[in-house]
């Protein structure tokens, strides 16, 4: 039995347009409106034509086998041969309704051969038969042409047929506006794309539903390209609410940061850190920076510490040093020494080691200060502030009563403009203390 044209849509073609990333049916999102168009009076189908078309359909979709009989196999070459014969016989004899049936099946066969050019060609032949075809068939075919041309990256033709489709239907629905938006986006017409995706989302939300994830993503992406971060954030919040993913949560913090709302950015990132949404080094370091700016150096340091434990943050010189500095500000000297020493190990210069010497002095670990000072001096890259290191080492030696070593270090500190005066004062003091200590030692030896 012949299936009326307008309902003839082989499943393979449905699959084809679905693979292009589009929804095949557009009815679900539409607000039903009365069709006020003038009904089309369709021409009749000749009996012989109906019989031949039924054979074509059987070649493509063999009937279920009768009991005890083998199942018939699909015979696409036979279907194509018969269709070609029907087309030749038709010429000026067949009406548009009949020709539409032939071209509709020819489009299917072309798709089966993976010939998208021919598929589109035959669908164009279908719409050429208007107004002698049902409104539904014309609408459906225009839509498939738009999507097929989009899949072939012929966006000029895709937008042409999409506009024809939207001007033909009683009322374009949300899916239609989204489809047009994607085509405009591929053409780099972002104004057109944004306008249409906004309409699609608005239609869905006004009906009390949630738009599809990719719709919000397209909205967000276009606004991001336009640097309209306020609107990007709105779409992102909807994604977090309706399609919760770690990436959307982290992106929300980035948008707050771009909008210079650092309090909210910090709150979102901190919650993400606790909830385990942070996965990238950049995210950990950004949170650490926010916490540091919020006068919370210990929390900042712990974010990097945990990020390294989770192998999310690479243990580079810069990252290790940053953690060490934060720990130092938090007066967590043991952790500061650990991280800064590891950073110094990776450095070509001795400056970081030199800073660690000062921390050792703060915790009164004189031997540690001396050992670290020697490591700093052994680094080939030299020091930016050698006077400070020599001065600190001189202080450590002095506290250990190693006066000669202290004087030697302080003498080197006088060679640096920054520490010259202070070192000279200390030299006099150390010399006096050395003399006093030696006289006391001599006295007690008697």
UniProtKB/TrEMBL annotation:
Pfam families: TPR_8. This is TPR repeat. SUPFAM superfamilies: TPR-like (SSF48452). TPR repeats lie at residues 387-420. The keyword Signal does not apply. Gene3D superfamilies: Tetratricopeptide repeat domain (1.25.40.10). Keywords: TPR repeat. It comes from the Bacteria. The lineage of its organism: Bacteria, Pseudomonadati, Pseudomonadota, Gammaproteobacteria, Cellvibrionales.
